[in-house]
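[job 0412] stage=complex_fold ligand=zinc ion status=START
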Amino acid sequence: MKVLNLECANGHLFEGWFASEEDFHAQISRQLLTCPVCGELHVERRPSAPRLNLGAGRSDAPPPDRRRPDHPPAGPDGPTLMHPGPGGEPTREGLQAAWMQMVRRVLEQTEDVGPRFAEEARRIHHGDAPDRAIRGQASAEQAAELAEEGIEVLPLPIPDALKTPLQ
Ligand SMILES: [Zn+2]
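[job 0412] stage=complex_fold status=DONE, emitting structure tokens
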């Protein structure tokens, strides 16, 4: 599974999930890949796949207030999660469910490297390890160091309900 950062000709940033590099190129060449914002067919890959920092307790960016699940966090370039209720309006339950589903998908499709996160992100960045989406824990200091080295890391607060083992 590859997670690629993509950008359309109009400058919209979004993420694409692909089975492989070949899958990405196949979708591009068959014009199956379009910008979710404007439908633009000219889509280009941005430099690196995201590394997901699941946090290690305290950080400078606290997780969202879980008492207000109607505002699921999404990065500035992240997907907008809308799950309309019966009346067409997004419901609190619907948004929470959509967020949980997205997080679960991320958990299923990334490799958990745990506390080796910063080290592994660095190895991937330098080509010393296979390029893939990983998740794990990094301190705020480690995340800042990675950012200084030009390695993109996404913070991803995990809902309590998903902290139990997946299987
Ligand atoms: Zn666009």
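Residues 78-85 have pLDDT under 50 and may be disordered.
[job 0412] exit 0
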